[in-house]
Write a structure and sequence with these properties.
There is one protein chain. The chain has 271 residues and is mainly alpha-helical. Among the domains are: 67 residues, no CATH class; 92 residues, 3-Layer(aba) Sandwich (Endonuclease, Chain A). Helix content is 50%, strand content 6%. A four-stranded mixed β-sheet has the order 1-2-3-4, sandwiched between helices. The relative contact order is 0.05.
Length: 271
């Protein structure tokens, strides 16, 4: 008799059958894949794999190869000790990207990830017990971090330089432009103002990314911000940094952009 988890007992109550019977029926009799069984029972592939092992139900050979990686560790790995030169690495990288593009792999991965986010994740709201935490800690002890030894410029070099690092962060932001930035974009478009939106990381000045830059030759910048998320001297700090490079900075916050008469208010600042 195996010890059953809360999830196992819950599934047994729903289906009115033991978990052993259900796994045997779906996986062996009906020849469903791990993913199909997982989706049907609303758990992860890994959970089904663990349950099969717990119930002593043999898994198919390719499943073993996928999950039991220990057999490929160290010298057992056919690529053990092999060092690829830069040319070959580049070739492998391009081939992998092309294969992912052709198979829409990134879209599929994203769709699978969405199915197990938040409360859809079988581990949602749960926590590892002290023993499990200890095991994880022991397994990771002594394992070098991917960024070990990378300090200062050495760290940024890994990402192609500090400016490129900042650009990548900005590109990854969830919402760009912000609602404040969009208001200024609309204002510039409506009144034909010589400012271009660069808050997407396209312009970096002293490792800072302004929101807008003047396009008619004047060294002027526009910054929009919400006071709640910035220190009291934010404008002074930011203006001083850009001033070192000859730029005058115009600031807009919620006091300007959430006002009923925000358009004339902003136009007065800009003209």
């Amino acid at each position: 008799m195996i010890s059953k988890t809360k999830k196992m007992l819950e599934i047994e109550r729903v289906f009115g059958q033991s978990i052993e019977f259900l796994l045997q029926d779906f996986y062996i009799e009906k020849q469903m894949t791990l993913q199909q069984v997982a989706e049907y029972l609303k758990v992860t592939n890994r959970t089904i794999f663990n349950w099969l092992q717990k119930c002593n139900i043999p898994t198919r050979s390719w499943v073993n190869k996928t999950f039991i990686r220990k057999s490929y560790a160290g010298k057992a790995n056919p690529n053990y000790g092999r060092v690829y030169d830069e040319k070959l690495r580049e070739k492998i990288s391009l081939a992998t990207k092309e294969n992912m593009r052709k198979s829409n792999a990134s879209i599929k991965i994203s769709q699978v990830a969405k199915r197990r986010t938040g409360n859809k994740n079988s581990f949602y709201g749960k926590h590892h017990n002290a023993l499990t935490k200890q095991k994880i800690s022991k397994a990771n002890k002594g394992r070098p971090a991917w960024n070990k030894g990378m300090v200062g410029e050495g760290y940024y070099k890994y990402f192609g330089g500090r400016e490129n690092f900042i650009r990548n962060i900005l590109k990854g932001l969830n919402k760009r432009p912000t609602s404040f930035e969009q208001k200024i974009i609309n204002l510039c478009s409506e009144f034909n103002l010589p400012y271009k939106y660069v808050g997407d990381g396209s312009v970096i000045i002293c490792f800072r990314n302004p929101d807008f830059i003047n396009t008619n030759g004047e060294k002027k910048l526009i910054e929009t911000y919400f006071t709640k998320w910035h220190p009291p001297d934010y404008e002074k700090q930011r203006a001083n940094i850009f001033a070192k490079y000859g730029y005058k900075t115009i600031f807009f916050n919620e006091g300007d952009l959430l006002d009923k008469s925000w358009k004339p208010k902003c136009l007065n600042k800009l003209r």
